[in-house]
User: Fold these one by one.
Assistant:
Number 1:
Amino acid sequence: MDLKEIMAINLRRIRHVKKMTQEELADSAGLSVRYIGAIERADVSASVTVLGRIAEALSTRNQS
C-alpha cells in the first residue's frame, strides 16, 4: 500500500467519524467535492497545503 492509499483510507475514516459528507468537507476546506473524492479514491496526491486545509476543516467541525 502506498502513501496515497493510506491517506485515502484515513481521510475517509476520519470524515466518517466526524459524520461529515464529502460535500461538507469540501465546502469547509474550500475544495471541490470531486477533488475530495479523488483524494479518497487515491486517484490524486494532495499537496501539503491541501492536506492542511483538509485537516483544519476536519478539526473545526463539532463531533456531536
Number 2:
Amino acid sequence: MGIALVRPQARSPLLRAFGRSSPLWHLDWVLLGAMVTLGCVGGLLTWSATVHRQDAAGGDPYSYLKRHMLNLVLGLVLCLALAFLGHRRLRGYAPVLYGASLLFLATVLTPLASTINGAHSWIVLGGGFSLQPSEFVKPALVVMLAALLAEDRETRRGSVPGGRQTLIALALLAVPALVIMASHELGTSLVLAAITAGLLFLSGVPARLLALLAGAAAAVVVAVLGLHLLSAYQINRFAAFADPHLDPSGVGYNTHQARIAIGSGGLLGQGLFHGFQTSGGFVPEQQTDFVFTVAGEELGFLGAGAVIALLGLVLWRSLAIARRAEDLFATLLAGGVVCWLTFQSFENIGMTLGIMPVAGIPLPFVSYGGSSMFAVCAAMGILQGVHADTRRPRSG
C-alpha cells in the first residue's frame, strides 16, 4: 500500500508579507515610533521656520511641511524595504551599494551639480526638490566597513583586524571623503570619519594602532590648515567657534543668532509660530541645519529637551539591537549606525549652542531635506533588519 505524498503549497506573497515569519512581526516598534515622532516634530518645526517667509513671498505656507512629510513617508517605505531584506542578504550587496554610492557621488564633479550655501554638492531635480549624493554614502560605508571587518575576523577565527584591514578601511573612507572635501562639504566628511573610527574601535583594532591613527589624523588636519586646502568660509566657521564673540555680524553671525534664539526660549518657549528670531528670519538655514533653534526658542527648554530625549531613545534602542545581534556583522552594522547618529546629533545640536564648530550637518529625522531623511531612514531599516533577523530563526 503506497503512501501518498502531499506536496506543500507555496506560500502566497501576502502570507509571506504579513505572516508570523514576516519582519513586520519582529520590528522594534519603540524605535519606529521614536523615529516617526521625531519626523513629525521636525515637520512642525520646519513649518514654523518657513511659514512667515512663504507668506511674505506669496507662496504656499504649507509647502515645506508637505515636502517634509512626503520625505518622511518615502523614508518609511525605504526603512521597511531594508527591514524586509534583512542584514543577512544585505551583506552580499555591500560592494554593490558602496560602488553605487560612489558613482552617484561622482556626479558632484560634473556639470549636473549645483552650488548651494557654498557646497558644490547638490543635484537639482526641479520643482523645489534636490538630492545630495554624499548623504547616501553614509549607510553604504557602514555596510561596506561592517562586511570587511567582520569577514576578516571570521576568516581568521576571531583575531582582531591588523594593519592591512585597517588600511583598506581607511581607503574606503578616503575615496568618498576626498570627493566630498573637494565639493566644500566638510560636515559629511567628519561624519564618515566618525563612522570609520567607531567601527575600527568596535571591531577590536589594537589600541596602539588606534593611537597611531589619531596622530596621523591630527597631522592631516595640520597639513590641511597649513596648505590652505579649506575654503575661506570653512576657515571662518572654525574661527567663529574658537572665538564666539568674533564679528557677530559677519563670520560669527550664525552661531550668535542661534544662541540668542535658544536662550530666549526660557523654560516653556515663546510658543510655536511665535518665536521672534524665527518669524523674523534672523537665523540662517533654520529649517535645515539650525532647526534645533526653533525648538529652543518656541518650545523652550522642555521642548528642546524632549527632542534630545527622543534622539536618546533612538540611540538606546539602537544600542540594544547591537548588543543582541546574532553575529559580528550584525553587531558592527548596528554599532556603525549608532556612531553615525550619535556624532551627527551631537555636532548639530552642539553647533547651535556654540560648543561645536558650524559644519553644515542636519539633525537626524528633524531637519528638512530629502537626502538626509532617506539616509537616516535607511539606517533605521538596517537596524530593523538586524532586529528582525535576531528574533526570527533562520529558515532551513
Number 3:
Amino acid sequence: MRRRVDNDDHTQALLRFENGAMGTMQASRVQTGRAFEVSFVLTGTKGAIRFSQQQSHLLEVSLDSDGLDTHGFRTIELGPEHGHFGALWPMSGINVGLHELKIFEAWELLQAIREGRPRSRTSTRRS
C-alpha cells in the first residue's frame, strides 16, 4: 500500500554560512542501527567536538592546543560544573535524557520571558 509521505526519510545538505564557513548536514529517520540517535560533529580549523544523545553525559573534544600528536579525541564526562547539568544530577557520569533537556529549554524560555529578552541560543547561565 502506498501512502503520501510528509517528511523526508533521509536528507543531506551542503551549507554555507554568512561568515563563509561551510558544512554538511545529514538527517535520517530510517537509518539502520540507530534508535533515536541525535548526534553531531563540529570540525573547525582549531579543533573538533563530537556529541551523541545516546551518551549525552559525554563530549569528545580535540583541540590543537591539546598537543595530541595523533589528533585524537579526549572524553569529557559532564557534571554539575557544566551548564544546567547540576540542577538535576549532583555528580558526573549520569546520562541526561531527552526529557531533561526539554526541562532546560523550558527553563531558558521562561527566564527570557521573565527578563523581557529574546531567548539566546548560546545561553549557558545557571541560577
Number 4:
Amino acid sequence: MIEIDRQYGRKTLWLDKAMITECLQNIFNNAVDAMNEEGTLRIHLESGKGKTRISISDTGSGMDSIQLQNIFEPFYSTKHKSGRHFGMGMYQVRKVMAAHKGKVEVKSKPGQGTTVTLIFK
C-alpha cells in the first residue's frame, strides 16, 4: 500500500495538459516502482519569487550518483530489464519541462528515496 501525502495550495499555471499529465505520470510510475508498491509518495507545491515548484518525493530505493548522471539519457533505465521499461520516462520529463521553459531537478540517495522537482517560471 502506498500512502499519498499532498501539501499544496492553489496556483494557476498555463500548461499543456497532455504534456504535463505525461510528465507527472512518468514521475509517479517511477516512484511507485522504486517503492516496490509500498511506501509514501509526497506531493508538494510551492510558489514564490516568480517560480512555482512541484516536488514529488518517494521513500523508494533511491539512486546512486552514476544512475543520477544518466537518468535523462534516452533508453537508460534503473529498473530491472523486464522488457516493459524503455528508459524514456525521465527523458520525456526533461523535454516537457524544456517546452514549458522550466527545468527539472532530481535528488536521490541509495536507500533514502528520490525527490523530483519541476520548476516553472
